[in-house]
Amino acid sequence: MTPTSTPRSYEFSAAENVIIRQLVDAMRFVAAASLAVGAFVLILGIAGLVSHGRAGLGPALGDFAESVVFVLIGLWLQRAVDAFNRVVDTSGDDITHLLNALRELTRVFSLQRTVLVLAAIVIVMAIGIHGVLSLG
Predict the structure, then answer these.
(1) Which of 28, 59, 103, 116 is the most buried (most CB within 10 A)?
(2) What whole-number distance in Å separates Cα of residue 8 and Cα of residue 95?
(3) Is 7 within 8 Å of 95 (Cβ atoms)?
(4) Burial class (CB in 10 A: 0-12, 13-18, 19+), 38
(5) 3-state class of 70 per DSSP?
């Protein structure tokens, strides 16, 4: 299906809606927890910056970046939750709502993939730096 094509009409059954609702319940918890962790990490970063001044700038920037990732994951998961809810709660546009939910999930997993790749790069660089420093 191309992005401009109209999705076919399909209505999920009551049993299928139960499965979607179970997914929504789990995703709602993870979205709220991600937002809470993001807010908590941001508060920790601000507190560290206030208590340590300029010396706390590096860790505070790391905390800020981490909080942004958690908040984005939480927001995008909540948007996916809303779209999955529309699959269950409305009739006539289940496929459209499902595709919108999948689009939001794609954002979440693309961000997580990027974070994991960056973390792997940092780990490899740290191992390399440690190896070079231990030679000299």
Answers:
(1) 28
(2) 7
(3) yes
(4) buried
(5) helix
Domain ranges (residues) in the chain: 14-107
Residue linked to tokens 């984005």:
72
Per-residue pLDDT of the chain (136 residues; tens, 9 = 90+): 555 666 568 899 999 999 999 999 999 999 999 999 999 999 999 999 999 999 989 999 999 999 999 999 999 999 999 999 999 999 989 999 999 999 999 999 999 999 999 999 999 999 999 999 998 7
What's the CA gap between 15 and 74, in Å, rounded? 27
Lookup: tokens for 36: 């809470």
Structure-block tokens of residue 84: 């999955």
Helices (H), 4-93: 14-52, 57-89
Q: Is the dihedral of CA 44, 46, 50, 55 positive or negative?
A: positive
11: left (phi over 0), alpha (psi -120 to 50) or beta: beta
Tell me which amino acid residue 18 is: V
